[in-house]
Amino acid sequence: MKGGLRQSMAWLHTWSGLLLGWLLVAIFITGTSAYFRDEISFWMAPELHQSVASEATPQLAWARLGEQAPDARAWDIILPQDRSPVAELRWQPDTPEAAEGGRRRGERAEMDAGTGQILEPRASRGGDFLYRFHFELYGVPRIWARWLVCVATMMMLVAIISGVITHKKIFKDFFTFRPGKGQRSWLDAHNATAVLALPFHFMITYSGLLIFMILLMPWGFNAAYEDGWRGFFNEVFPRQEQSANAGAPAAMVGDILPLVNRAEARFGQPAQRISVSWPNRDNARIEISTAKEPALTERRRGGSPTLVFDGRGELLETRPGPPDDAAPARIYNLMVNLHLAHFADPATRWLFFLFGLVGSAMAVTGMLLWVSKRSQQLRGREPGFNLRLVNGLNMAAITGLLIAMAVYFAANRLLPAALEGRESWEIRAFFLAWLATLIHALWRPHRRGWLEQLAALAALWLAVPVIDLATTDSHLFSAIAWRHGALAAFDLVCLGMAAGAGYAFWRVAGPPPARKPARASRPRRATAGESS
């Protein structure tokens, strides 16, 4: 690291971005998809696509739980929302078998919001798999996976800061792009994608580290609270206590709609959740929560405007909104909400998604720039083992991951719905496809290998909506897909991915950029003392 500050930062920027760059690409791409985690999960459960909410949905869910679990310890009804048109029913059986390791295991079911029929969607991890892979990887012990992701995120933060210091003309470079110039084009693309969403890149990296502050820096919690981090969260996010004992059997209200209408009229928002503790007992409590105005500093769960009734429907308590959290809790909520976009409406979520794509492109172009720069230094010589290895790993991390995601979505439609362990087979298909691309990339770590994987990438992403068309009634050309816009949007994004891969194939298949001939050295002018 000899030289001045900028030269030292350039060295740091290069190696902090390269050493864990392959993992960072996977984190960025899967994290970007997580902005539409619910929509992906909905697309991957076509059995739910016929559900349409109605005014009678709360009563249908109420009656269904009365039949399904009359003696449960608790009920929970998640009413249909914009991102999920089905009603989700949850309940906790009041049996010793339901307690597992000190935590009570609950049951759940999906209900058609229009008919009250219990639906049986195919087993699938849906968007949750990609979301959890983003920060927990897969098949790795959770604590080690989170540590590895935190280290990679810290390297990303170092790369961002050192990159800003390195580029003296960073904003001027943003408006400069020279296509077809090889290494110079990759540098221009890297600079443009880095500057375009620089505040987003810094925010998403720093907030990701702050979310794991308990893992990275637990000493303050341990010093300030007797129970460590648990004491901190119990203080800033207190839980509502539930009566530990069941009361005597007693009838509850049979029609929940008047209570739902009362809550909606009181707060001016649609009802979202109905929670009942000790249903059909004399100490039953019914809580009806409505939507709340999104705010950056509000807690992720809880705090919704709520009316609390007893089992007979008498009003017991009014909770107008979230409590006034302490400053540490509000700061933590701010970072979590920014990172996960919990506050975002659809337009803002799409904006975050586009910024995530730009961030992925920034990481990808940086890795490709490293290979391009060293390839030009060969001057016609064959690349060595190290360069071939990095090029192969780049291929597997970029096109390989995207191929694996396309295979994951295609497997959701092609695997039999009744297959035992079906959700595990979807995930196996993902990793088997990724492994195949890695083997291919290490076998053919050159331009021909890139062309083959780009062709496969375009074909697979194009195949996903085609398979959807052949296997479901909620494809791009059906009214159901457009009634639930997320279904049509998913197929359109697949077509966009196929088009992008096809364009990349066309550019790579074209003639390589011509090298600019070296300038002839100008003859040195003779000085007066040298003239004869």
From TrEMBL:
Q: Keywords of this protein's UniProt record, alphabetized?
A: Membrane, Transmembrane, Transmembrane helix
Pfam families, per the entry:
PepSY_TM
Query: Where is the sequence biased in composition, kind Basic and acidic residues?
Result: 100-111
Transmembrane regions listed in the UniProt entry: 12-36, 144-165, 194-221, 350-371, 392-411, 427-443, 450-467, 487-506
Return the annotated region ranges for Disordered. Answer: 92-117, 512-532
Q: Which domain of life is it from?
A: Bacteria
Sequence ranges of Basic residues compositional bias:
516-525
Supply the name of the protein. PepSY domain-containing protein
Q: Which organism is it from?
A: Alloalcanivorax gelatiniphagus
